[in-house]
Every structure is written in structure tokens, then in C-alpha cells.
Amino acid sequence: MLAVADEVVEQLWTDQVHQHSGVDLILAAGDLPFDYLEFLADALDKPLVFVPGNHDVDLSGYSNVRGLWTKAGLPVRWPGPAGAVNADERVVDVAGLRIAGLGGSIRYNKGPNQWTERQQARRARRVSRLAGWRRLRDGRGVDVLLTHSPPLDCGDEPDAPHRGFACLHGLVSRLRPGLLVHGHIHPHGVPRPDRVLDGVRVVNVVPYKVLDISGARDET
């Protein structure tokens, strides 16, 4: 899979993206221009699953019924990336993988997609319930937990906007995903090593990484 977050890679916004044509799925962990994401999906002709970051527009409250987008019962234009699957606070099955999503960052001002620890914990419990119902129905667990922010003290930063969520520790423990993919923390030229949380590999994908869900391959 091709995982992207936070920083546009100019080479990927050209025909050079076709060097990654072998991927089966594009994951976006937030804070990227939606037309960039649309280009990646169109150029590679692969499904795109994303969660919003704290610099993305508010995508809450939108519903899609048979291709018609509505908000508060009124027809509207979907402001998110065309054709993409918003996994925020959801569990979705795409390209043979089960993906649980939780977007946004810790609240540090009045912008969209920001949550207090208590609010995010409530959203995390909903994701856990949805994953549990899916597992009861078909016996399958979550393959990837896709978040914008990292877990607290697991690849985050000490400044207020980049502090991780403590509730992700419990969510990882309950879901036992094969992989946790996040963004939000910019490398700024310093390599960000993978972390391990309760036996689960935690990967910062800013600006992009090509990942194999089995963990057998990891290349930038």
C-alpha cells in the first residue's frame, strides 16, 4: 500500500507516481490537499481511504445515499476527495483489508478536526464497538488502524499541537491491528523510526511510505 500524510511529494504529483503502480491501496493520514489525493487515486487507479487531519476542512455530518450527498437533509457538494472513503470513526473493508479510522489531533485551538482527550476517547470506543460487531459477524479483525495523530508518548512531540492521544493505547490493545499508520508529526529532516505499541508496529508515514501489511517490506 502507498501511505501518505501531511507533506506533498512533488514527484508523486507527476507521472513518476507510476513507479508505485504495484500497490493495491492508498492510505492518507490527513492534512494533504484533496486534489493531490484525487490525483494519486486516479493515476494509480487504486482505492483511496483517508482520515482528516487538523488542517483539513470539517467533513462531519455528510451522508451519501445512492451517490447523493446530503447534509442536514439537504443536497450538498461533498467537499472531500472525490471517490475516496472517509474512514474517520468508521471501520471499512477496502482492497481486502479491514481498516479502522480515527482522524484529527488533540484540541489546541478552535479549528476543525480537533478533539479533547475525552472526546477522542468516546470516538475511539465507537470504533472499537464497530470493529467488535464486524468480528462477531465474520470473525475478521482489523488489519490497519489509520489515524492522523500518533498515540501519546509513541512518536508524538511535547508541544501542545503535536501531543498524541492516550486513548489510542487502549484502542490498539482492543483492536490488535496488524499495523497503526499515522501522520501529523513532520520529520523535519530527522528520520522517524517505527515504534512498537503493545506488540503493534506504529509507522509515521509523513510524507509517504510504501508498506506491506505483513511487515515484510518497508521502503521510502
From TrEMBL:
Ranges for the Calcineurin-like phosphoesterase domain? 14-187
Q: Cite the SUPFAM superfamilies for this sequence.
A: Metallo-dependent phosphatases
- Highest taxon of the source? Bacteria
InterPro entries, per the entry = Calcineurin-like_PHP, Metallo-depent_PP-like, UPF0046_metallophosphoest
Q: Which PANTHER family match?
A: CALCINEURIN-LIKE PHOSPHOESTERASE DOMAIN-CONTAINING PROTEIN, METALLOPHOSPHOESTERASE
Stated name of the protein: Metallophosphoesterase
What organism, scientifically named, is this protein from?
Lentzea flava
